Amino acid sequence: MKFSSTFLLLIAFSVSFAQYTTPGTGVDWTLDDIAAASPTTITVSGTTYTLLEDLTIAADDILRINTDLTLEIEAGVRITVLGLGSFFVEADAVIFTAVNQAAPYDGFRFEEFSTIDIQNATIQFGGGLQVLTESFVLNNCVLLNNVSGVATGATVTLSRGIPVITNNDFLFNANPAISSGANQSVSAIIENNLIEGNNQSNNNRPQINMGATRLNDTLKIRNNTILGDRDLDQAGGIAVANLVGGALRVIIEGNTIKDNRYGMTIVGPNSYALIKDNIIEDNDTQVNPNLGGSGINLNAPTGDMTVDATGNTMRRNLWGVTIQGPVDANFGDDADNPGLNVFSENGNNGEIFALYNNGPTTILAKNNCWVENGEGTLAEAEGVIFHQVDDPTLGEVIFDPVFCETLSTGENTLTAFTMYPNPAKNQINFQNQNNFETITFYNLNGQKVFTQNLIEGTNTIKFNLNAGLYFVAFDGNENQAVKKLVVK
User: Fold this and answer.
1) Residue 385 — φ and ψ, nearest 5°?
2) Percentage above 90 pLDDT, the chain
3) Which of 485, 477, 339 shows the shortest CA–CA distance to 410?
4) Structural domain boundaries of the chain?
5) Element housing 483 (H / E)
6) What is the pLDDT at residue 9?
7) Which of 8, 86, 238, 429 could make an SS bond with 62 (beta carbons 3.0 to 4.6 A apart)?
8) What is the model's pTM?
9) Between vectors from CA 298 to CA 293 and to CA 300, what angle results, nearest 5°?
C-alpha cells in the first residue's frame, strides 16, 4: 500500500501534538483518574506514573496530587493548567522527572487566572515553570538540573501578581533560578531559599533576575542563600531592573550572596530599594573590574532612584559599592538610617574600593566601618572611598563619623536579638540567652556613653541619656550584637 506525502505529514502532525484535556466540568482529578479516563496519556506501575503526552487541565477542573509518587514525563511533553483551572501538590514527597534524563520534558505552563500551589516536590530534568498566573505558591521544593523548555527565561519565570516562592532549593539549573519580564509587573515574595549554581548555560544573567514591580506592592527578596559556581564567569547574584517604565519597589534583606560575578545590582528610574543586613562576599568570578564584581551596584543614569542601605557586610568583592548616575543613596545618616555597613578587602588591581561614587550626587554614608579590623580613622576611610576628593566632577561621600569599634565582629553577629521598648525613655529590657557579658551605648560620634555588666536571663538596664539615636553593643566571648536605640 502506498501513502501520499500529505497523509504521512498528517500522521506526523497528529502524533507530535497528542494530548489529553480534562473536560472542564468542575471535577477534582487525580493521576489515577486521568489514567483511567485516558490510558494513552498516563500509565501506572505502583507509585510510578508515566505521562506519555501533553496534559491540559481545563478551566474549573483541578489536578490534585495528595499521595507520595513519582511522575516520569516523556521527552517534550508539557503540563498546562488553563485559566480558572487548579493544580495542587499536597503530598510529602512527589517527584517530577524525565523518563530519560538526557531527553527532558517541556515543563509546566500555568495560564493567567489559574491557581497553583506546589508543596514538597522535586522538579528535575524538565523545561521549568512558566507562571502566567497571579495565584502561585512554590514551597519546600527542590528544582535541579532543569533546562530551557516552556520557561526559557529561568527555572521559574513569573509574569504578574504576588507569587510566593519560599523554602526551596534551586540547584544547578541551566537558566537562572527565578525571573520576571522587563515589561511585566511582579512583586514576588522570594524568601528562605537555597539558590546555588544556577545559570549553568553561563549567559550574562543573575541567579535572581527581576524586572519592574507593581506600583503599590513591594518585591521582597529576603533570607536567601545565593551561591555561585566559580567555574561560571557570567552568572550574577541578584538583579532588579526597571528598564521600560513602570515602578520598582524592592526590599533585599538578610541574604547571603557569595561567589557570583557580582552580588546585586539595582537598575533604572522610578526605583526605591531597601538593602539591609546582607552578607555579600567573594563576588568576583569574572575577574574583570571593568565589567562587574560589585558587592552592590546602583545604576540610574537618568536619576529618580532612592536607596537606603544599612547593616550590610561586603568582603572581597572587586568593588564594595559602585554608584552610577545621580542616585539618591543613603548608607547612613543622623536620623533614620544607622549605617552599620562593614567593608573589607573589596578591591582590584592592587587598590581597595569600598565605595566608588561615579555620579554627581552627594552620598550620605555615616557610621560605617570602611576597613574591617582597621584603625577606624577618617584618613583610613578616605583611602578606600572614591568621590569628589579624587575627581572634582563627582559627588561627595560624607562618611564622618566612622563607626568600627563594635561592627568588626566577624560573621556571628546576632541580627535576631531584640530589646524593648524601642523607643525608650530611661530603661530597656531583654532576655540574655546568648552569653552576653556587657552592654555598651555609643552616640552618633562613636563615643562610649554608658556601659554595664550583664547577667544570664532577664536584664533590665536603666540609663539617663539625652534624647537621640544611640547604638547599643552587646558583647560576649561567643556572640556579639549591635542594635539601634531611640531615646525619647
Assistant:
1) -115, 130
2) 80
3) 477
4) 19-152, 427-487
5) strand 480-487
6) 40
7) 86
8) 0.83
9) 130
Instruction: Examine residue 176 and say whether the peptide bond preceding it is cis (omega within 30 degrees of 0).
Output: no
Residue pointed to by grid coordinates 489515577:
32
Joined grid coordinates for residue 124: 528535575
Using alpha carbons, select from 54, 58, 65 the residue that is nearest to residue 81. Answer: 58
DSSP state of 91: S
DSSP, collapsed to helix, strand or coil, labels residue 379 as: helix
Give me the pLDDT at residue 169, please: 96
Determine whether domain 427-487 maps to CATH 2.60.40.
yes
All three cell numbers of 71: 511522575
Amino acid residing at 143: L
Q: What type of residue sits at position 168?
A: N
Alpha-carbon gap, residue 158 to 209, rounded angstroms:
10
Q: What is the four-CA torsion angle of 446, 450, 451, 455, rounded to 10 degrees? A: -120
- Is there a cis peptide before residue 301, judged by omega within 30 degrees of 0? no
Q: Which amino acid is at 326?
A: P
Could you count the other beta carbons within 10 Å of the beta carbon of residue 483?
A: 20
* CA within 13 Å, CB half, 104: 19
Selection from 216, 223, 217 nearest residue 208 by Cα? 223
**And the C-alpha cell for 342?**
562593614
User: Which of 35, 80, 30, 32 lies closest to 55, judged by CA?
Assistant: 80
Higher-confidence residue of 477 and 204: namely 204
In one letter, which amino acid is 360?
A: P
Q: Are 211 and 183 in contact (CB under 8 A)?
A: yes
238 - beta bridge partners? 208, 264
The three cell numbers locating residue 204? 550574562
The total number of residues written for the chain in this structure: 488
Cα–Cα dist 231/477, whole Å: 38
Cell of 200: 549553568
Q: Which residue has the cell 520534558?
A: 105
* Among 204, 257, 248, residue whose Cα is nearest residue 228: 257
Among 65-69, 333-337, 383-387, the range scoring the smallest mean pLDDT is 333-337
Residues 155 and 171: their CA atoms lie apart, in Å, by 10
DSSP states along 256-276: EEESSS-SEEEESSSEEEEEE
Q: What is the DSSP string of 397-440?
A: EE-PSB--TTT--TT-B-TT---B-SSBSSEEEEEE-S---EEE
